[in-house]
Amino acid sequence: MKRAGTLAGILLPLLLLVAPLPESLSAYRLPGALVIFTILFWMTEVLPAELTSLIFLLLLAILKVAPNSVIFSGFTAGAWWLVFAGLTLGAAVQKSGLGRRVALLLLRVAGTSYAQALFGLMLAAFLLAFLIPSSSARAALMVPLAIGVAEAFQVAPLSAAGAGLVLGVTAACHFPAFGILTATVPNLVLLGTAESLYNTTFLYGTWAYLLMPTVGIAKFFLTYLVVLLLFGRGAPRRGSSPHLQRSGAWEAPGPLSAEEKRLIIILGLALAGWSTDSLHQIKASWIGLGAAALALLPRLGTLTPLDFRTRINYSALFFLAGILGLGSTLHATGAGKVLGTYLFTYVPLASMSESARVAVVALFSALLGLFTTVPALPAVLTPILGSLAQQQQLDLSRLLVMQVLGFSVGFFVYQMPPFVLAQGFGYFSARQGTRFLLLLTALSFLIIVPLSIAYWRLIGYLS
């Protein structure tokens, strides 16, 4: 895969640079070639994603493809700072043990049958999205707990029951969290790109009102049922008490530490600020940054200067800066507008019914995700949708929300970092992961997309 990615990432951009093109497209050769190189290297992980982003930004600057203010706009975007805040708060949650406490408490309440344990794990993973704004960070915390439960049930790696536990908890870390503005990187990429390119922003409460009932709650239960359907038939009905105790999955977490208590107050303030942003109009980015600063304060916070240097994954921030720089460059050079024009030449969104428009945008978003990673997808698609909105006189904010229905699904493991991380534990095969994701994606288009359309009509969002 890496060899193929290296060859394609080098040869295809070179081919674009020398291929005969109409005069009207010749100006887009260089930005197009750099974008193709970057997306292919991200997709196949030829190099670490953050290094690919740095090379991309460097080439843009050296070759003067766009002004530096455009190329490096990712570092000044509110979404970049919100991801920084999320990484900081996530590190605090993990260090304090608060995340593990929440997961264990939910497991103890859920019960000890396979279906109950699966539901408890998935519910914990979903609820942690309010505390840890990163799908990969939640997966890193929850997958080891799922493996502990699998061991308690005495199911082997790659068995149907073992794969179901790990795939279920990974999916719950990722998919339902798209109903929370601050809980996934693609949401934040969309937020940052929309703000920097079109001065369009989304409020935390409005986002939840539009997406949580369907993309969040309905998708959670759909995911749970798909896991049981595919992997639950041969699962043991109940784990044995000795194994449950030895696994630590039903271990009593003990009293709250002073560190956990302080962190609960900080997270409570952040959640209160995010959920009332329609009243005070302070952006989610700056609320998150304030909470991160509190978590770093001596005595009041939970992270030390050493924690700040060692526990926060700064590579994710450089990856994000490259993603946002890609979107800004596509917009500034006009390449995004041209791409949108050619892709949608035979898809007149303006003449469609709003229901058909939702389905088309969602489907196009999902299919485009096959050629890039999900975190990078909104940076590529948002400039295209912005150009379409301008050309066909459509509501931009609605088009941007519609694309969430598409990038909140995935066909293959490589598209989504939490699944890549989870597969590394060896509890599910590529075939099991693909089978699960393909069925869940198909059912999402058959159930979640129509349900979203019906819900949006009910609340008056669509006419």
Q: Which secondary structure elements does this structure contain, and how are they paired or packed?
A:
Blueprint: H1 2-18, H2 29-44, H3 49-62, H4 68-71, H5 78-96, H6 98-110, H7 114-127, H8 135-152, H9 160-174, H10 185-198, H11 204-231, H12 241-247, H13 258-275, H14 277-280, H15 284-296, H16 305-310, H17 315-333, H18 335-343, H19 354-368, H20 377-392, H21 396-407, H22 417-423, H23 430-459
Explain what the structure shows:
The structure is a single chain. The chain has 463 residues and is mostly helical. The protein has two domains: 1-47, no CATH class; 48-459, no CATH class. 71% of the residues lie in helices and 0% in strands. It contains 23 helices and no strands. Helix 8 packs antiparallel against helix 9. The longest helix has 30 residues, at 430-459. The protein is globular and about 70 Å long. The mean pLDDT is 83.
Give a short synopsis of this structure:
By secondary structure, the chain is an all-alpha fold. The chain has helices at about 1-20, 30-45, 50-60, 70, 80-95, 100-110, 115-125, 135-150, 160-175, 185-200, 205-230, 240-245, 260-275, 275-280, 285-295, 305-310, 315-335, 335-345, 355-370, 375-390, 395-405, 415-425, 430-460. It folds into 2 domains: about 1-45, no CATH class; about 50-460, no CATH class.
Cα separation of the termini: 46 Å
Number of helices: 23
Shape: globular
Structural class: mainly alpha
H/E topology pattern = HHHHHHHHHHHHHHHHHHHHHHH
Poorly predicted runs of 5 or more residues = none
User: What Rg is obtained from the alpha carbons, in whole angstroms?
Assistant: 22 Å
Tally of separate domains:
2
* Average pLDDT over all residues: 83
Q: How many strand segments?
A: 0
Sheet bearing the most strands, described?
Answer: none
User: Helix share of residues?
Assistant: over 70%
How much strand content do the residues show?
Answer: under 5%
